[in-house]
Automatic annotation (TrEMBL):
Top-level taxon: Bacteria
Source organism of this protein record: Agathobacter rectalis (strain ATCC 33656 / DSM 3377 / JCM 17463 / KCTC 5835 / VPI 0990) (Eubacterium rectale)
Residues covered by the Glycosyl hydrolase family 31 C-terminal domain: 595-681
Domain DUF5110: 700-738
Listed name of the protein: Alpha-glucosidase
Location of the Glycoside hydrolase family 31 N-terminal domain: 25-225
Length: 748
């Protein structure tokens, strides 16, 4: 391991460990986050002000390492193997000759580099052929990844692994491998998919005696192997770039997620209507049809807050335009919808149609807004509008230009923007690795393209929407995107396996910082059945982003496409959600403050309980509510694991002691819900057609005997005024049956 250690310099909270071939920087933040950044190929220089590494990727972290108020690190030398010992706060880092580290948290060894070479299994010469046959492609030559950099850490025998955003498969990612490369694949997503739309290089390792997060900030294509190649270690391999990662230790998952979101940003509190029910379909062809949809929800007494306009509303799929025959008066439409308490969200894709007469193309060409080929010409590919060019959202001037176009939508009464196809997806083969953006080549920009598009959209809305909290929905994302957008899980299908998948994804997205998330209810591709639709609604009942969406050409799936039984069951489910919206809103506010996700896997709340490490067909809404949806056809009951403690059946009030499985009654129109003893839950009752109807007089506090406390929060549901004190906060404390109330803040 010829990377010999020479020397160590300390400045404030950063240690520079100088090796023969470069330096390793170790910074210890005030909150015990450890940032490790390798700078190879540099002269060995002592630490200097502008040499302390900044965050590797701009706009991802909220604080730069160099800004972190350090608690001074100290260095010492212990023995021959350990060349330097750096310590601050609860952290001690032992650094070795070969750039390997051991990190101790509160005196306990938590993270260790795996020091021997990876033990790859021998490849059979026909293996590539077999894989190619299974995956339906021809054998390509294995490319030598000469520039790859790898983090390899020891994997504890009982470590479970969570996070990584929307990756399919089990909740616990141990034993699997994945690739971060934003991918739009319309085939039904199954466990063996390595990549999907989002690349969030953050994961949590939960051992029996420790819990920590790793955020590996590098946007190049990255492989994660969590004990798949070998059970002794896990590794993160970036195809290019430098090693740059953060270690975040905590006593539990909540602390680790708290640290990660303190670094990359929390999911903000949205306008309250965002938490309502959304209806969408690729294929609402006229504005009259959109209005009819809203009317039908009202007629059937199914609450609804939002209708999405998919690409059908545009003129030839040109972004920021309207089809003047089918959508001649979107402003008028939005006003009529507003009378019914319904808002409009519209889709905007990144691809700009190559059309000399189209203002977006003309303006973009004039200002050099689009990505280039290596020969300097504007790069072209095809998306919905045909030949298209791709805005370089890594450029500030392009983001401002694009952001200002949101005015066009706002003037038509549109209240939120849905960003799609921003992996970026392309129909004439993938963008070559060397397409040029300001921030770098496509191979470096790909995984962060959607992030910068969402940022442009968010900032445009923030500037132009009269102080309202922007809502951007995205398909592609990177770490930290949660500051700018919520995300949905893309093109799922109307199949039973995708109800289960949606919950695995929502649970992992939630602990990966993207707490405003959800899947297409009913399934996007393929044809739904009435029973599947109902169970999809029930599974999503408390999922933060709640939208029925389907693809053109599939069976329509608005609830009224089916019989009364279906309509009744959907109505019941949507009403249950609306009843809990005050609680959801409180949790969303808490999430903005602390990063605690709105929806959580059971393991987030009960990490010491080994039974819950892979449960994702049940989830928690906050810490009080457990939902156990039916995710298979023909069921009338399901087994439910209740963690330790006392629980109440939400419907019957029956009390159960936890730490065991029970059988819950689950006919078609019922999603099993259990409430923890000591719960305090603000709910809304009365006639509610949309969140607008949830007025103060309709809110009451549900309690379930036990010990608990909860802060109920109110603001204007719309603007940022709460950040200047325009909110009320009341703390409730429950002891047995006795509920006490204390006003914490009165600003409304
Ligand atoms: C993509 C989106 C989908 C949308 C369609 C048409 O497939 O994922 O939600 O309906 O494009 O815009």
């Amino acid at each position: 391991m010829g990377n010999l250690y020479k020397n160590c310099k300390i400045q404030d909270n950063t240690a520079e460990l100088i090796y023969e071939n470069g330096s390793l920087f170790v910074t210890i933040f005030e909150n015990n986050i450890v940032h490790v950044a390798q700078k190879h190929g540099i002269e060995s220089v002592a630490i200097e002000e502008d040499f302390i590494p900044k965050a590797a990727t701009p706009d991802v972290t909220c604080k730069d390492t160099s800004d972190a108020k350090g608690t001074a690190a100290e260095a010492g030398v212990s023995d021959a193997a350990v060349k330097a010992v750096i310590s601050a706060r609860d952290i001690t880092v032992n650094v070795k000759d070969n750039e390997k580290l051991d990190i101790y948290y509160k005196g306990k060894l938590v993270l260790s580099d795996y020091e021997t070479a990876r033990k790859k299994s021998e490849k059979n010469p026909y293996e590539d052929l077999a894989i190619a046959e299974l995956e339906g492609h021809t054998v390509g030559k294995d490319e030598e990844k000469t520039d790859a950099v790898t983090i390899i850490k020891k994997l504890g025998k009982d470590d479970a692994i969570y996070g990584l955003g929307d990756k399919p498969g089990c909740l616990n990612k141990r034993g699997y491998s994945y690739v971060n490369w934003n991918t739009d694949d319309p085939a039904p997503h199954v466990d063996s998919f390595k990549s999907l739309y989002k690349s969030i290089p953050f994961f949590i390792v939960l051992g029996d005696e420790y819990c920590y997060g790793i955020f590996a900030d590098n946007t190049y294509k990255t492989t994660f192997d969590f004990g798949y190649e070998n059970t002794d270690y896990y590794f993160v391999e970036h195809e290019k770039g430098e090693l740059d990662y953060y270690f975040m230790p905590g006593n539990d998952m909540a602390e680790v997620v708290g640290l990660y979101t303190s670094l990359t940003g929390t999911t903000p509190l949205y306008q309250r209507w965002i938490y309502g029910s959304h209806q969408s379909r690729w294929g609402y062809y006229t504005q009259d049809e959109v209005l009819d949809i809203a009317d039908k929800f009202r007629e059937l007494d199914i609450p609804c807050d939002v209708i999405h306009m998919d690409i059908d509303y545009m003129n030839g799929y040109r972004v920021f335009t309207f089809d003047d025959k089918k959508f001649p008066d979107v402003k008028g439409l939005s006003e009529k919808l507003a009378d019914r308490g319904v808002k409009l969200i519209s889709i905007i894709d990144p691809g700009v149609k190559k059309d000399e007469d189209y203002f977006m193309y003309k303006e973009g060409m004039e200002m050099d807004a689009f990505a280039h080929d290596t020969d300097g010409s504007v790069y072209e590919n095809a998306v919905w509008p045909g030949t298209s060019v791709f805005p370089d959202f890594t450029k500030q001037s392009v983001r401002s230009w694009w952001g200002d176009k949101t005015k066009i939508l706002l003037e038509h009464g549109i209240s939120g923007i849905w960003n799609d196809m921003n992996e970026p997806a392309s129909f004439n083969g993938p963008l070559p690795d060397d397409v040029q953006f300001e921030y770098g080549a496509h191979e470096k920009v790909h995984n962060i393209y959607g992030h910068f598009m969402a940022k442009a959209t968010y900032e445009g809305l923030a500037k132009n929407d009269g102080g309202k909290r922007p809502f951007v929905l995205t398909r592609a994302a990177y770490a930290g995107s949660q500051k700018y957008c919520g995300g949905w899980t893309g093109d799922n299908h109307s199949i039973w396996a995708h109800i289960a998948l949606s919950l695995e994804q929502v649970c992992n997205l939630s602990v990966s910082g993207l707490a405003m998330c959800g899947s297409d209810i009913g399934g996007f591709g393929s044809d739904t059945t009435p029973e599947l639709l109902v169970r999809f609604y029930e599974a999503a009942v408390f999922v933060p982003f709640f939208r029925n969406h389907s693809a053109m050409g599939t069976r329509r799936q608005e609830p009224w496409q089916f019989d009364e039984t279906t309509i009744d069951a959907v109505r019941k489910t949507v009403k249950l959600r609306y009843r809990f919206i005050p609680y959801i809103y409180d949790l969303a506010h808490e999430c903005e403050k602390t990063g605690a996700p709105i929806v959580r896997p059971l393991v987030y709340e009960y990490h010491a309980d080994k039974h819950v490490r892979n449960i994702s067909d049940e989830y928690m809404l906050g810490s009080f509510v457990l939902v156990a949806p039916v995710i298979a056809p023909g069921k009338e009951a399901r087994e439910v694991y209740l963690p330790d403690g006392d629980w109440y059946d939400y419907y019957t009030g029956e009390k159960y002691s936890g730490g065991r499985y029970i059988l819950a009654d689950a006919p078609l129109d019922k999603v099993p819900v259990f409430i923890k003893a000591g719960a305090i839950i603000p709910v809304a009752d009365g006639e509610i057609r949309s969140t607008e109807d949830i007025t103060e007089d309709k809110i009451s506090i549900l309690t379930y005997p036990g010990k608990g406390s909860f802060v109920h929060y109110q603001d204007d549901n719309e603007t940022f005024a709460y950040r200047n004190g325009a909110y009320n906060a009341v703390e409730y404390t429950l002891d047995g049956d006795k509920l006490e109330k204390k006003v914490l803040h009165k600003g409304l």
